[in-house]
UniProtKB/TrEMBL annotation:
Residues 1-21 are annotated as: Disordered. This is Methyltransferase domain-containing protein. InterPro entries: Methyltransf_25, Methyltransf_Superfamily. One of its GO terms (biological process) is methylation. Keywords: Methyltransferase, Transferase. One of its GO terms (molecular function) is methyltransferase activity.
Amino acid sequence: MDATQGRRHTADAGGQGTADADAEQFWERHYGTRRAWDAHVNPLLAETAAPLCPGVALDLGCGPGGDTIWLAQQGWHVTAVDISTTAVERVRDRARDLGIAGRVVTEQHDLASSFPAGQFDLVSAQYFHTPFAFPRGRVLRTAAHALRPDGLLLIVDHGSTAPWSWNQDPDIHYPTPTEIAAELDLDPEHWSVLRAEMPGRQATGPAGETATVIDNVLLVQRRDRSMAA
Ligand SMILES: C[S@@+](CC[C@H](N)C(=O)[O-])C[C@H]1O[C@@H](n2cnc3c(N)ncnc32)[C@H](O)[C@@H]1O
């Protein structure tokens, strides 16, 4: 993957990248037509990161940026990445409005073709789903390789369909944490699975309705110091 092709959104940087036009348009429409921009940290990320000493984090598919903003507010330096230019621009603007712009860099990437440069203490992939063909296993494996020694990769996926979800495909299969770990295909000599669980939680839909939904959670730690770049 080419780390140079993303479009960086800071006060002082610009550039052009390539992206799958359909996927980019889809997610641009998704965020461009979104009036409410309410974004909160995922509790599973907060639970994982709260005990850690703040370092350098990467938020893959940051979307509205609730996770990025929360991490930056805890003292982390965060690179927030999304295929949607609207999403990353809004995260950048929100960070600026909150006075934490110095700890947030936003970059537009189609992660199928480019990946941000750097080494990270924490990589977070929260509900990193897309309806388009996407080499997710390869991207997440690249993320695992971008970890510093002792760094953590937290993947939180949907494990069930909420009644208000835009995707009600009855045949949808949500990969289990074990299946996600198998897709990553990481050498157990160098990466450890710290958590592979499917907890339920009470979720609230856009109209205030509630339902129990499942999250598929995988937490991986890089162990091998000799492999770090
Ligand atoms: C289901 S949303 C989750 C957003 C956010 N992480 C959250 O928890 O609310 C999936 C996110 O992945 C982004 N995404 C989809 N395909 C992508 C790609 N090829 N490269 C980078 N980001 C992508 C979307 O724009 C979207 O923001």
